[in-house]
Design brief:
By secondary structure, the chain is α/β, with parallel strands linked by helices. About 60% of the residues lie in helices and about 15% in strands. Strands 2-3-1-4-5 form a 5-stranded parallel β-sheet, sandwiched between helices. The chain starts with a strand and ends with a helix.
Length: about 190
Protein backbone atom coordinates (compact mmCIF):
# COMPACT_ATOMS: atom_id res chain seq x y z
CA UNK A 1 0.00 0.00 0.00
CA UNK A 2 1.38 3.40 -1.01
CA UNK A 3 0.77 5.94 1.78
CA UNK A 4 1.94 9.48 1.13
CA UNK A 5 1.93 12.51 3.40
CA UNK A 6 1.94 15.75 1.44
CA UNK A 7 3.49 18.37 3.65
CA UNK A 8 4.02 22.02 2.92
CA UNK A 9 3.04 25.44 4.09
CA UNK A 10 -0.46 26.74 3.39
CA UNK A 11 -0.67 27.54 -0.33
CA UNK A 12 2.14 25.15 -1.31
CA UNK A 13 -0.11 23.15 -3.63
CA UNK A 14 -0.94 20.08 -1.53
CA UNK A 15 -4.53 19.91 -2.79
CA UNK A 16 -3.58 20.36 -6.43
CA UNK A 17 -0.84 17.74 -6.26
CA UNK A 18 -3.15 15.37 -4.40
CA UNK A 19 -5.59 15.59 -7.30
CA UNK A 20 -2.83 14.66 -9.76
CA UNK A 21 -1.72 11.71 -7.60
CA UNK A 22 -5.29 10.43 -7.18
CA UNK A 23 -5.83 10.61 -10.95
CA UNK A 24 -2.65 8.69 -11.82
CA UNK A 25 -2.35 6.25 -8.91
CA UNK A 26 -5.92 5.81 -7.65
CA UNK A 27 -5.04 6.51 -4.02
CA UNK A 28 -7.65 7.58 -1.47
CA UNK A 29 -7.34 11.27 -0.64
CA UNK A 30 -7.79 12.50 2.90
CA UNK A 31 -7.80 16.30 2.97
CA UNK A 32 -8.27 17.26 6.57
CA UNK A 33 -8.97 20.83 5.44
CA UNK A 34 -11.88 19.63 3.27
CA UNK A 35 -13.22 17.46 6.09
CA UNK A 36 -13.01 20.33 8.58
CA UNK A 37 -14.60 22.82 6.16
CA UNK A 38 -17.44 20.35 5.51
CA UNK A 39 -18.02 20.12 9.27
CA UNK A 40 -18.13 23.93 9.48
CA UNK A 41 -20.52 24.15 6.53
CA UNK A 42 -22.83 21.59 8.16
CA UNK A 43 -23.09 23.96 11.13
CA UNK A 44 -22.62 21.22 13.70
CA UNK A 45 -21.46 22.13 17.22
CA UNK A 46 -18.06 20.67 16.35
CA UNK A 47 -18.12 22.68 13.10
CA UNK A 48 -18.75 25.91 15.01
CA UNK A 49 -15.91 25.11 17.40
CA UNK A 50 -13.60 24.32 14.47
CA UNK A 51 -14.64 27.51 12.65
CA UNK A 52 -13.66 29.64 15.66
CA UNK A 53 -10.24 27.96 15.75
CA UNK A 54 -9.53 28.07 12.00
CA UNK A 55 -10.72 31.67 11.52
CA UNK A 56 -7.93 32.72 13.93
CA UNK A 57 -5.37 30.77 11.88
CA UNK A 58 -4.89 28.18 14.64
CA UNK A 59 -4.75 24.38 14.37
CA UNK A 60 -7.49 22.00 15.52
CA UNK A 61 -6.37 19.98 18.57
CA UNK A 62 -4.37 16.79 18.12
CA UNK A 63 -6.97 14.60 19.82
CA UNK A 64 -9.77 15.74 17.46
CA UNK A 65 -7.57 15.25 14.40
CA UNK A 66 -6.24 11.86 15.49
CA UNK A 67 -9.78 10.58 16.11
CA UNK A 68 -10.77 11.81 12.64
CA UNK A 69 -7.84 9.97 11.02
CA UNK A 70 -8.44 6.76 12.98
CA UNK A 71 -12.05 6.76 11.76
CA UNK A 72 -10.87 7.35 8.17
CA UNK A 73 -8.37 4.46 8.29
CA UNK A 74 -11.01 2.12 9.72
CA UNK A 75 -13.33 2.97 6.81
CA UNK A 76 -10.84 2.14 4.02
CA UNK A 77 -11.90 -0.60 1.63
CA UNK A 78 -9.89 -3.82 1.38
CA UNK A 79 -8.84 -2.97 -2.18
CA UNK A 80 -7.50 0.49 -1.27
CA UNK A 81 -4.21 1.15 -3.10
CA UNK A 82 -3.02 3.68 -0.52
CA UNK A 83 -3.75 7.04 1.02
CA UNK A 84 -2.64 10.60 0.45
CA UNK A 85 -2.67 12.47 3.75
CA UNK A 86 -3.12 16.14 2.87
CA UNK A 87 -2.93 18.42 5.89
CA UNK A 88 -2.11 15.68 8.40
CA UNK A 89 0.02 15.29 10.43
CA UNK A 90 0.54 18.92 11.38
CA UNK A 91 2.35 18.35 14.66
CA UNK A 92 5.00 15.89 15.81
CA UNK A 93 2.44 14.37 18.20
CA UNK A 94 0.13 13.74 15.21
CA UNK A 95 3.06 12.23 13.25
CA UNK A 96 3.81 9.87 16.13
CA UNK A 97 0.12 8.92 16.39
CA UNK A 98 -0.14 8.33 12.62
CA UNK A 99 2.98 6.18 12.65
CA UNK A 100 1.47 4.07 15.44
CA UNK A 101 -1.94 3.84 13.71
CA UNK A 102 -0.32 2.71 10.47
CA UNK A 103 2.02 0.25 12.24
CA UNK A 104 -1.05 -1.42 13.83
CA UNK A 105 -2.22 -2.04 10.27
CA UNK A 106 1.24 -3.16 9.01
CA UNK A 107 1.62 0.05 7.00
CA UNK A 108 3.89 3.08 6.92
CA UNK A 109 3.91 6.46 5.18
CA UNK A 110 6.44 8.60 3.33
CA UNK A 111 6.44 12.39 3.64
CA UNK A 112 6.82 14.52 0.52
CA UNK A 113 7.65 18.10 1.50
CA UNK A 114 6.55 20.81 -0.95
CA UNK A 115 9.09 23.59 -0.44
CA UNK A 116 7.84 27.00 -1.62
CA UNK A 117 9.23 30.49 -0.98
CA UNK A 118 7.14 32.42 1.56
CA UNK A 119 6.33 35.39 -0.70
CA UNK A 120 5.01 32.99 -3.34
CA UNK A 121 2.83 31.30 -0.72
CA UNK A 122 1.30 34.64 0.29
CA UNK A 123 0.64 35.62 -3.33
CA UNK A 124 -0.92 32.24 -4.12
CA UNK A 125 -3.29 32.40 -1.14
CA UNK A 126 -4.28 36.03 -1.74
CA UNK A 127 -5.09 35.14 -5.36
CA UNK A 128 -6.92 31.97 -4.29
CA UNK A 129 -8.97 34.00 -1.82
CA UNK A 130 -10.29 36.19 -4.65
CA UNK A 131 -12.13 33.21 -6.15
CA UNK A 132 -12.36 30.50 -3.46
CA UNK A 133 -14.50 32.33 -0.94
CA UNK A 134 -12.30 30.86 1.79
CA UNK A 135 -12.40 33.17 4.79
CA UNK A 136 -8.86 32.17 5.81
CA UNK A 137 -7.30 33.51 2.57
CA UNK A 138 -6.74 37.08 3.78
CA UNK A 139 -3.35 38.64 4.54
CA UNK A 140 -3.70 38.76 8.33
CA UNK A 141 -4.85 35.16 8.64
CA UNK A 142 -2.31 33.99 6.04
CA UNK A 143 0.56 35.46 8.07
CA UNK A 144 -0.81 33.81 11.21
CA UNK A 145 -1.17 30.46 9.41
CA UNK A 146 2.43 30.65 8.16
CA UNK A 147 3.70 31.39 11.68
CA UNK A 148 1.76 28.40 13.02
CA UNK A 149 3.13 26.24 10.20
CA UNK A 150 6.74 27.17 10.93
CA UNK A 151 6.31 26.69 14.67
CA UNK A 152 4.22 23.50 14.74
CA UNK A 153 4.22 21.74 11.38
CA UNK A 154 7.73 22.25 9.99
CA UNK A 155 9.18 19.96 12.74
CA UNK A 156 7.05 17.11 11.30
CA UNK A 157 9.43 17.03 8.33
CA UNK A 158 12.34 16.46 10.72
CA UNK A 159 10.44 13.56 12.30
CA UNK A 160 10.06 11.80 8.93
CA UNK A 161 13.62 12.70 7.91
CA UNK A 162 14.86 10.89 11.03
CA UNK A 163 12.66 7.92 10.07
CA UNK A 164 14.21 7.98 6.56
CA UNK A 165 10.73 8.42 5.07
CA UNK A 166 11.24 11.92 3.67
CA UNK A 167 11.60 13.59 0.26
CA UNK A 168 11.83 17.34 -0.45
CA UNK A 169 10.30 18.81 -3.62
CA UNK A 170 10.95 22.20 -5.19
CA UNK A 171 7.40 23.59 -5.12
CA UNK A 172 8.34 26.91 -6.77
CA UNK A 173 7.94 25.36 -10.22
CA UNK A 174 4.81 24.91 -12.35
CA UNK A 175 2.13 22.46 -11.18
CA UNK A 176 3.21 19.99 -13.87
CA UNK A 177 6.90 20.28 -12.97
CA UNK A 178 6.12 19.73 -9.30
CA UNK A 179 4.03 16.68 -10.15
CA UNK A 180 6.85 15.28 -12.32
CA UNK A 181 9.11 15.40 -9.25
CA UNK A 182 6.47 13.68 -7.11
CA UNK A 183 5.78 11.10 -9.82
CA UNK A 184 9.47 10.15 -9.89
CA UNK A 185 9.39 9.54 -6.13
CA UNK A 186 6.18 7.51 -6.32
CA UNK A 187 7.63 5.32 -9.07
CA UNK A 188 10.58 4.52 -6.77
CA UNK A 189 8.30 3.85 -3.77
CA UNK A 190 6.05 1.50 -5.76
CA UNK A 191 8.97 -0.88 -6.36
Amino acid sequence: MLNIILCGAPGSGKGTQSDFIVEKYGLSHLSTGDVLRAEIKAGTPLGKEIDAIISKGQLVSDDKMIALIEHFLDSLSKDCKGVIFDGFPRTVAQAEALTAMLAKRNMSATLIDLMVEEQSLIERMINRGKTSGRADDNLETIKQRLQVFHRQTAPVADFYLEQRNYFAINGNKSMQQVFAQIDNILQILKH
